[in-house]
Input
Amino acid sequence: MVVYFYASLLIRDGVVTVNEKENIQENHDRFPWKLVIGFVLSIVLTLLTLWVAFRSGFQDKMVLSLMLLLAFLQAGMQLVLFMHVREGEGTVQVSNMVHAFFTAIIIVAGSVWVMSFGMHNH
Amino acid sequence: MAESTHIHDKNVPLEYSKAEDRMTILGFWVFLGAEVVLFSTLFATYLVLHSRPADGPTSAELFKPEIVLIMTFLLLTSSFTGSMAIHYLRAQNMKKMIVWLLLTMLLGLGFLGCEIYEFHEYIALEGVSIKTSAFLSGFFVLVGTHGLHVTLGIGWLTLILIQLKKRGFTPRTARKVFVIGLYWHFLDIVWLFIFTLVYLSGMVL
Output
């Protein structure tokens, strides 16, 4: 599901315009329900994260995995709906963000893994 | 006003109408990519040192869920109001855009106030500091760097609001509003991970 989500981000042209289907004039004269949906989504995802953390009773690994999944989903939602990452130089911008997050995950998970050995002796 | 000679295509948002501004937006995305990596090193340091509270409190003993939840919802809401401001930027509705920008700034100030209160509680009431333990060094540096970014964002937004008042909508001011919008949403994304990996993980795992 996550893979599909990010794959769908990549399939975009790099043309300098907003979504070609939407005319700016008619689009921006209407109330932006898309943004409201994004806001509701971010609230729901946060509440879900809270439930996973405090109420679910899952095992620690499951709790952490689910919370991270929800955080990445919310980050992706913000990038697409609020930050318009696919507009402008969309392909370059999306690739750059995917690469940045990839590097970040390697740095964080890699450091935690490498430093996990021998810590219990202290 | 050099911009007034520019022929504006209504189908292209003002901030994308000139090559220079388009490249600035692209450049800002590259900067945000570097910021993601910068924060990842602070996250890595924090997570590695989390299990070393020395003589000080552990994260489970120190963190209080209430204030963290208030901060999270303040910043989430400010991210939404920021996106509304960009919507009205594209509708070229100055009045509504300013209102949403001011609302965003207010929520940001609320967040910052909560963070200062939280740090003050820890330092004054719990008697801890950045030197207490490896865990707290990592904590104050990571969360403090985020708070510093929010502070910077509020100052930056103030300057942009002054410029908007003076110059109105031009490709350049439109681009500046769009770019600070990107910056603001980015800070919300970083907070998502602080919320998850620092606070929630620190309280329940």
Summary: Residues 3 and 185 of chain B are 28 Å apart (CA to CA). The first helix of chain B runs from residue 19 to 49.
